[in-house]
UniProtKB/TrEMBL annotation:
First-level EC class: oxidoreductase
Stated name of the protein: NAD(P)H-dependent oxidoreductase
Start and end residues of each Flavodoxin-like fold domain: 3-174
Name of a matching Pfam family: Flavodoxin_2
Record EC number: 1.-.-.-, 1.6.99.-
GO molecular function ontology, one term from the record: oxidoreductase activity
InterPro entries: Flavodoxin_fold, Flavoprotein-like_sf, NAD(P)H_dehydrogenase_qn
Endpoints of the signal sequence: none
Length: 195
């Protein structure tokens, strides 16, 4: 069964391993009959700075951020590729989330006091594809998977996108012989299956 899949490559460089992974996923998904939209954050033009405290006052969204939200709203499955830098995601990707994931569009904060905001993007699943130089065991043991908890729980689940499955590729700066080919094949299989 075909799905509507939105892929966001969150690496801010024009060329990167994350771009290659996003394109491998997209190519395999299209070949399998899925509808695919792909965005590279490097090509998006917007101010990543929220600029204000709270949500009482927000800047108008630039066309790139409106398109980002429209693509997520269109999708049944969202794929996000990103490198882990300093334990988190790149600033431009975080800025896109800060700016675009607003109340009334991605969550409803008009709930009784003490209740969690209501997610407005329910009914979508996600795949998080992370690259890092940190080994997975170290990320888990020492950092307690902080980036995964942030992305899966504090961002995607908060707005209703769940479940979120995670693919993690480490030694990204100095992969062994054939390792990148294996990673590309892996995400190609995920794209083919639409998961």
């Amino acid at each position: 069964m075909s799905k509507r899949i939105y892929i966001l490559n969150g690496h801010p460089a024009e060329t990167s391993l994350n771009r290659a992974l996003a394109e491998a996923y997209a190519g395999a998904a299209r070949a399998a009959g899925h509808e695919v939209r792909l965005t590279h954050i490097a090509a998006m033009d917007f101010d990543p700075d929220h600029g204000f405290a709270g949500f009482g006052k927000t800047k108008p969204l630039e066309p790139a951020l409106e398109k980002l939200l429209a693509d997520i709203e269109w999708a049944e499955h969202v794929v996000l590729t990103a490198p882990m830098w300093w334990g988190g995601i790149p600033a431009k990707l975080k800025g896109a989330i800060d700016r675009a994931f607003l109340p009334g569009r991605t969550f409803d904060s008009r709930v009784p006091r003490g209740k969690m905001p209501k997610p407005l993007l329910s009914g979508r699943s996600a795949r998080l594809i992370l690259t890092s130089d940190t080994p997975r065991w170290f990320l888990s043991l020492i950092y307690r998977n902080a980036i995964v908890h942030q992305m899966r729980g504090q961002i995607l689940r908060f707005v209703g996108i769940k479940p979120t499955r995670v693919s993690f590729f480490s030694a990204a700066s100095s992969p062994g012989a054939g390792q990148v080919d294996g990673w590309l094949a892996n995400v190609g299989q995920l794209g083919k299956a639409g998961v």
